[in-house]
Amino acid sequence: MSSIIQLLPDHVANQIAAGEVVQRPASVVKELLENAVDARSTDIKLIIKDAGKALVQVVDNGLGMSVTDARLCFERHATSKIRKAEDLFSLHTKGFRGEALASIAAIAHVEMKTKQDQEELGTQIIVEGSKFVSQEVAVLPKGTSFAVKNLFFNIPARRNFLKSDTVEFRHIVDEFQRVALAHPNIYFTFYHNGSEMFNLPGSSLRQRIVNIFSGKTNQKLVPVQEETEIVTIEGFVSKPEFAKKSRGEQFFFVNDRYIKSGYLHHAVMAAYDGILKDGAQPSYFLYLTVPPNTIDINIHPTKTEIKFDDEHALYAILRASIKHSLGQFNVAPVLDFDRDSNLDTPYHYKDLKGATPTIQVDGSFNPFSDDKVNKHYSSGSGYKKAEPTANWESLYVGLKQDAECTTGSADFSFESEEVTGSLFNDGEVEQTVHSAYQIHKKYIVSSIKSGMVIVDQQRAHQRVLYEQFLINMTVNQASSQQLLFPLDLFFSSVEMELIEELKLSLINTGFVFEETKKDHIVISGIPVNVTESEVSLVLEQLLSDLQDGIPESSFSQNDSIAKSMAKSLAVKTGTPLTVKEQENLVNGLFACKEPNVSPFQKPTFITMRVEDLDKKFAI
To answer: From edge to edge, which strands make up the β-sheet containing 520-527?
Structure first.
């Protein structure tokens, strides 16, 4: 019987490995940036075209490679960072696997230019689909340049699975931000389709965070610093009042490597327990330094998951250090039984003695004496006794006759102010019956001919608002209420790009943009059913819902915006409603085109017939 098992050709094995390493253009960006950092670069440029589908290029001024190394770096399992198996447990670098460049070269056109500082000439290599096309000597500056073009050109099925340019670009920005935050001492620049997206000179960690996320980030940050035998923690967390709906600005770095850890995230949320609103997410930028032999970073292909030796101790230390920082900077409420420093005597008055107040008493004053004594007292003290007015009733004698003579009462008639009847007859008051009732501040019960209908107030309001917003956006006749003082709202650069794409649809809902800048927008008008305090919440929820991508078609885009705004503005469960509000909500629901379900395809009401109730009471 012939053998079944065969060794795969190298180009097929490389394409299979590429499935693990290269999932999208952002994966290429991550690998190339990490290699540039490991090359001890101080200046790194990232150049992107068409969200990385056409070009991903990383240029650095690092150590460069020799001719032999330039050729070997495209071989599988070739690495400069591991010599023996024990090295896996003492890693201080990033790209150590030795499969990244081989996998990238298997599915793209790669052009590499590299030169070492001590060499006069560099090396230029072109690889297309794992095949070496050319290798030449060239005059190059110090460092390395990797240009990856036409990603997945030989695997059309993988290319078809890529998302829109907006989504792919957002993933690239995420990877760029993670590397840039991990190394604030390196100068990073980022260009997309010829436009400069980020220009981040080497700076402190706090300044790097502010440069990336712009806006009022500096006001949000609370420093965290803790050093123990197990871990050293430093970084920043945000103040509770700046918490958002989305989880965008949350970063953990372990030994300068970005990781994802739900366990550590839970520790952060535990530190904020009691000072955050429901559903709010704080921002944090936390850098953990642990001994390399206490972690295993080789458990995931993208190396974003880490196994710690003592997770429980790390959890407790992280939670305690964040709580301490929030309390130290008067962010978290604390019980303080000491005296209030605001009640202390000011410094300039500390040694002064207070003057004893003097009291002056007029011993000759007698309130029961005659008028002469009173006049004498009043003349000396500044008070003047009022002279009694005699026959004051005579002041009004003849006033009525004079008024009738001057106004000519014959020409005027006066209405009687006597109440002749009540606004509602007593019979009508007794017959007034509420047609809707609220149960547990969640459901509205209303009677119908066949029985009763029970309405979920939150889902019903979502349906009403959803259809209103859709009509406004499709008919383009939304009404706005002008603000007396325009609102300044600050966002990160990625969020500003989203707002720019959604701007036309938001205008159709009733928003009026007075000004749009690089890091903030100025809103001078809002939809009539949105209050001024809800504007930031609505936009944050919208950005959170659309962070995975904006639909290409205008109808789908309007539909997503209408759903998001309806979810933000709908009356929540637990909100008491007046009888009039209950009736309006029920009437508005059944005036909708599809009253049966909410915008998220959940039932808005159920009905119960009288027959069903009779069966419940049947013996």
So the answer is: 480-490, 520-527, 512-516
Residue 44 pLDDT exceeds 90: yes
Question: Which pair of structure tokens corresponds to residue 129?
Answer: 């689909």
- More confident of the two residues 49 and 86: 49
pLDDT digits over 521-579, tens only?
899 988 888 888 888 888 888 887 776 666 656 667 788 888 888 888 899 888 888 88
- What DSSP string runs through 172-219? HHHHHHHHHHH-TTSEEEEEETTEEEEEE-S--HHHHHHHHH-TTHHH
How many CA within 13 A on the CB side of residue 375?
A: 4
How far is CA 544 from its chain centroid? Answer: 7
- Identify the three-state secondary structure at position 238: strand
Model confidence, pTM: 0.69
Q: What 3-state class would DSSP assign to 460?
A: helix
Any residues with CB less than 8 A from the CB of 504 and at least 6 apart, and which?
A: none
Q: Tokens in use for 552?
A: 């290409």
| DSSP per-residue string spanning 24-75 | SHHHHHHHHHHHHHHTT-SEEEEEEEGGGTSEEEEEE-S----HHHHHHTTS
- How many helices and strands in the chain, by DSSP H and E? 19, 22
3-state secondary structure of 437: strand
Find out whether 20 and 14 touch, Cβ atoms under 8 Å. Answer: no
The three-class DSSP label of residue 131 is strand
Contact predicate 37/175, CB 8 Å:
no
Q: How far is CA 234 from CA 13, 275, 378, 528, in A?
A: 42, 22, 75, 45
The answer to whether residues 220 and 252 touch, using CB atoms and an 8 Å cutoff, is: no
The pLDDT tens digits of the residues spanning 108-162 come to 899 999 999 888 899 999 998 888 889 999 999 999 999 999 988 888 888 888 8
Say how far apart CA 572 and CA 540 lie, in whole Å: 17
Closest of 441, 459, 479 to residue 563, by C-alpha? 459
| 332 Rama sector, left if φ>0, alpha if ψ -120 to 50, beta otherwise | beta
Contact 231, 288 (CB under 8 A): yes
- The 10s digit of each residue's pLDDT in 228-260 is 888 899 999 988 888 887 777 889 998 888 888
Six token digits for residue 380: 């000396």
Q: Rounded distance, CA 334 to CA 330, Å? A: 8
Residue-wise pLDDT tens digits, 463-496:
999 998 888 887 766 778 888 888 888 887 777 8
Distance of CA 175 to CAs 180, 248, 542, 543, 613, Å?
9, 13, 23, 19, 60
Distance CA 242, CA 239 (A): 6
Domains (range + CATH), the chain: 10-200 (3.30.565.10), 205-328 (3.30.230.10), 439-607 (3.30.1370.100)
